[in-house]
Amino acid sequence: MAKQASSNTGDGVKSVHFILQGKGGVGKSFVSALLAQYFKSAGLDPKCIDTDPVNTTFMQYKALNAQHIDLLDGSKINERKFDGLMERLLSENGVYVIDNGASTFVPLSNYLAENNCIDILVEAGYTVFVHSVITGGQALIDTLQGFSAMAKIANPNSLVVWLNEFFGPIERDGKIFTEMRAYTDNTDKVRGLVRIVKRNQDTFGKDIEEMASQKLTFEEVISGPQFAIMAKQRIKTVQRDIFNQLDEVGF
Fold first, then answer.
1. Who is most buried in 45, 73, 143, 168, counting CB within 10 A?
2. pTM for the whole thing?
3. Is residue 195 classed as helix, strand or coil in its secondary structure?
4. Are the C-beta atoms of residues 93 and 14 closer than 8 Å to each other?
5. Is 28 helix (H, G, I), strand (E, B) or coil?
């Protein structure tokens, strides 16, 4: 069980969590769902937003009640439609978890930078976090580039890195992530690391895949009838591991 985020659980809590990565299929929506569940376990009521115009995966987690923001004009993304998101953030309080698809990565990154959105949100009393997913395997280089792009716009101590080992070890030329230049050049921006460990594929792996494919939360799995007793125990282990790491990051 997570500790109380920011030591507050009332209406005065104001934080925004952007999950941003330019590479598709690396687990952004899964990370968004994990983060939202963490805040719910801390007694908060996160407001979940899905801006992906193509794959509204985050919105499919019914228990998280994510809302979709349509950014399309015909077949093209209209950056001006991000104004509506900013209007909402600036007129309400709360903890926001905002999942962005690969197709909205460049438009939203441009919008945040060109309009000084992070500074505006901070001036309005928000604490702003940027979450970036790094994966092993063939997507490593692309996700490192996405991380570096986010480091340029993130404030110091506000960038949370999710190391998703599902696709393989996060290593390059004998170096782990914290030894890579992408990290060492941006240590002042990084608030913390969260490692999604690749576990035994026949047990933990299949349980997590099934949970993700059904868009279920930890609590739905643990309290529901779909999973057997040992599968539930493994899911609890994963939940505890992720939430403990988020405790260490500190929000």
1. 143
2. 0.92
3. strand
4. yes
5. helix
Given the structure tokens 């979709």, which residue do they identify? 68
- Separation between Cα atoms, residue 28 and residue 57, nearest integer Å: 9
Give per-residue pLDDT as tens, 80-101.
889 999 999 999 999 999 999 8
pLDDT, one tens digit per residue, over 47-60 is 999 998 888 899 99
Which one, of 139, 177, 133, 128, lies nearest residue 28 by Cα?
133
Give the dihedral of Cα atoms 78, 84, 89, 91; nearest 10 deg: 160
- Neighbour-count burial of 80, counting CB atoms closer than 10 A to its CB (0-12 exposed, 13-18 middle, 19+ buried): exposed
Helix 206-213 vs helix 229-249: crossing angle, to nearest 10: 80
